[in-house]
């Protein structure tokens, strides 16, 4: 499904968003593995930016800027001019939540704690609200 950016008419398809999300997760997992954030302990599968990892590490991950741009363009009613709104929203907040959901999903016991972003996933399983496609079963 394609969504139109109301400001400049650009189109972002679900496939483009999925591809950017996958690139971002693979890069973020590599950075978090290097910083010993993942794999997480079985009894502490949930991580949070600012507590368990540094946000700038993730902002510098490959794919983050592209994913943020696509979300900003796809949902201008949510993310455009956030500082002029009473309740500002930023795409980066959703990106951090997506990453943390992917980590939690991979850390759960039924996923065997496998953090392998290169596992061949089913494109139908990876949506904006599901991180299931990032974990090897």
What does it look like?
The chain has 137 residues and is mainly α. The chain has one domain (2-134). It is built from five helices and two strands. Strands 1-2 form a two-stranded antiparallel ribbon. Strand 1 (2-4) and strand 2 form a beta hairpin. The longest helix is centred in the N-terminal third of the chain and has 21 residues, at 14-34. The radius of gyration is 15 Å and the shape is globular. Residues 120-133 have low confidence and may be disordered.
Radius of gyration: 15 Å
Low-confidence stretches: 120-133
| Number of domain modules | 1
Structural class, by secondary structure, is mainly alpha
First-last Cα distance: 28 Å
The mean pLDDT is 80
- Gross morphology: globular
The helix tally amounts to 5
Strand element count: 2
Tell me the strand order in the biggest sheet. Answer: 1-2
Q: Report the major sheet.
A: 2 strands, antiparallel
Name the helicity range. 40-55%
What string gives the helices and strands in order?
Answer: EEHHHHH
């Amino acid at each position: 499904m394609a969504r139109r950016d109301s400001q400049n008419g650009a189109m972002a398809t679900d496939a483009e968003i999925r591809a950017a999300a996958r690139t971002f997760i693979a890069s973020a997992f590599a950075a978090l593995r290097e910083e010993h954030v993942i794999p997480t302990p079985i009894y502490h599968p949930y991580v949070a930016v600012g507590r368990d990892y540094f946000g700038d590490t993730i902002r510098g991950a490959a794919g983050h800027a592209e994913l943020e741009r696509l979300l900003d363009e796809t949902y201008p009613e949510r993310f455009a001019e956030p500082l002029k709104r009473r309740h500002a929203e930023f795409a980066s907040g959703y990106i951090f939540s997506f990453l943390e959901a992917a980590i939690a999903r991979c850390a759960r016991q039924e996923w065997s704690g496998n953090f392998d972003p290169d596992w061949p996933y089913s494109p139908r399983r990876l949506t904006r609200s599901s991180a299931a496609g990032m974990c090897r079963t």
